[in-house]
């Protein structure tokens, strides 16, 4: 968002949705795409999984109670043939640790 003109690049849309959900007494869930094919780390294995864990950690520690974390299916391979192996076990352990 920092490169967006919305709120002069200082907006936090996740914060706004989390706050609105809390205000209305609605559970708050997040979606994080597994397949960030725009990241130069995609397809590097552990480095990409570290990058993903950092994103997940930010989402699970900065916005209060998270009632649901949603991932969808993802293609593990880029057009250039680089294949990413996702570390689901690590991610689920992190979710359970930060948002039991």
Q: Can I get a quick summary?
A:
By secondary structure, this protein is mainly α.
Q: What portion of residues is helical?
A: 25-40%
What portion of the residues fall into strands of 2 or more residues? 5-15%
Rg is 15 Å
How many helices in DSSP terms? Answer: 3
How many strands? 2
Global outline? globular
Distance between the termini: 29 Å
SSE topology:
Blueprint: H1 13-23, E1 29-31, H2 46-61, E2 68-70, H3 88-98
Parallel strand pairs: 1-2
Helix pairs in contact: 2-3
What does this structure look like?
- The protein is mostly helical.
- It has one domain (28-98).
- It is 38% helix and 6% strand.
- Strands 1-2 form a two-stranded parallel ribbon.
- Strand 1, helix 2 (46-61) and strand 2 (68-70) form a beta-alpha-beta unit.
- The relative contact order is 0.18.
- The mean pLDDT is 90.
Write a concise keyword list for the protein shown above.
100 residues, 6% strand, 38% helix, mainly alpha, 2 strands, globular, single chain, two-stranded parallel sheet, 3 helices
């Amino acid at each position: 968002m920092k490169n967006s003109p919305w709120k002069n690049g200082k907006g936090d849309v996740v914060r706004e949705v989390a706050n609105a959900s809390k205000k209305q007494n609605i559970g708050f869930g997040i979606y994080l795409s597994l397949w960030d094919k725009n990241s130069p780390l995609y397809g590097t294995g552990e480095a990409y999984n570290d990058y993903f864990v950092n994103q997940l950690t930010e989402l699970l520690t900065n916005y209060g109670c998270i009632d649901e974390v949603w991932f969808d299916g993802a293609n593990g391979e880029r057009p250039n043939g680089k294949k990413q192996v996702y570390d689901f076990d690590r991610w689920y352990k992190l979710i359970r640790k930060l948002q039991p």
